[in-house]
Design brief:
Layout: H1 3-10, H2 13-25
Length: about 45
């Protein structure tokens, strides 16, 4: 299973319910994604 397909499944309605059930049985089994800040380089304006 590709990682893209895995995340599409988890982000669907069925995947969210499945994640709630599995995390209820085993806490922390499927962690929530954490947003990551990516630095953006500013271009020199002339």
């Amino acid at each position: 299973m590709s990682l893209e397909l895995y995340y599409k499944l988890l982000n669907s309605t069925i995947g969210k319910k499945l994640k709630e059930i599995l995390n209820g049985l085993v806490p922390g089994l499927i962690p929530e994604p954490v947003p990551v800040r990516v630095p953006v380089q500013e271009r020199n304006r002339r």
